[in-house]
Design brief:
Elements (H helix, E strand, L loop, with lengths): L13 H20 L6 H18 L5 H9 L5 H19 L12
Helix pairs in contact: 1-2, 2-3
């Protein structure tokens, strides 16, 4: 099937359609969850991850970085406290002796 712009097969490819709707869903839910103090740390992290993925996959110059800076306006002490707590738990597990990233020689 040929689309209106003359590209064959565009309408039958499910991945771009799925990714488009996923981005719209993340942005839409993020705009709602950002106002909840409990959900804010996770919403900001998810949205920043989305924009980093956009940076990795598309050549949009400064768009994604401007958006990341804009979303960081919602950072406050509570968000940073939650992130620091998660980082300490993950780093203790990952970097502990014999952990996943233990680079010491094992004997």
């Amino acid at each position: 099937h040929t689309s209106s712009i003359g590209v064959t097969g565009v309408q039958t490819c499910a991945l771009p359609i799925f990714l488009t709707w996923t981005v719209l869903l993340i942005q839409g839910i993020g705009m709602i969850l950002i106002w909840s103090r409990r959900c804010r740390p996770y919403a900001i992290l998810t949205i920043i991850g989305l924009h980093l993925a956009i940076d990795y996959t598309m050549n949009l110059y400064l768009f994604q970085w401007i958006m990341i800076v804009g979303w960081t306006a919602f950072l406050d002490r509570d968000v940073l406290r939650v992130w620091r707590g998660h980082w300490h738990r993950v780093s203790r597990f990952v970097f502990k002796k014999g952990g996943a990233l233990d680079v010491r020689a094992k004997s």
